[in-house]
Design a protein that fits this description.
With 166 residues, the chain is an alpha+beta fold. It is built from four helices and four strands; from the N terminus they run ααβββαβα. The chain has helices at residues 16-29, 33-36, 105-123, 142-151; strands spanning 39-48, 81-89, 97-99, 130-132. A hairpin with a 7-residue loop joins β2 (81-89) and β3.
Length: 166
Amino acid sequence: MGFRSRMPTRIPFLTAQTKALRLARARQQHWTVDDWKHVAWSDESRFQLNRADGRVRVRRQHLESMDPKCQQGTVQARKGSVIVRGMSSWHDMGPMIRLDTTLTGNRYVSILSDHLHQSMSIGHSDRLGEFQQDNATPHWPKIITDSSRSNLPKLDTPDDHQNLQT
């Protein structure tokens, strides 16, 4: 019949309210390519090193579970992936930073203070650059919003707190 066992395609869950907020913002902006040249984008990505996230499937019969062809090796926790954070803009790319731990609010502030200002000054020496983050949960604790309001140019985003990479 042509049917096979497959993992579902993963897409962000967007409520009707979130969609309306994003559409309203897009209509409000009416930005040109030149406008977008002043935006610096930043995000984290996780890379699997050995397919250790449990998403591999096999086709086997009931009694074949111990057949090496139907098994997958495992590694100890957190040794099967690496998380990196980077920043880019029309003008330049910022440093790629390896995150040895899960990103927390305090770690995010540390990364911003260590790398963001330098990257923004290189890519946007005219001081017209705006920093865009993806509204992921670690980016929103009080320590982040206070730090961001006081020192960083940041593009307005819908207040939906959803990671756009999901």
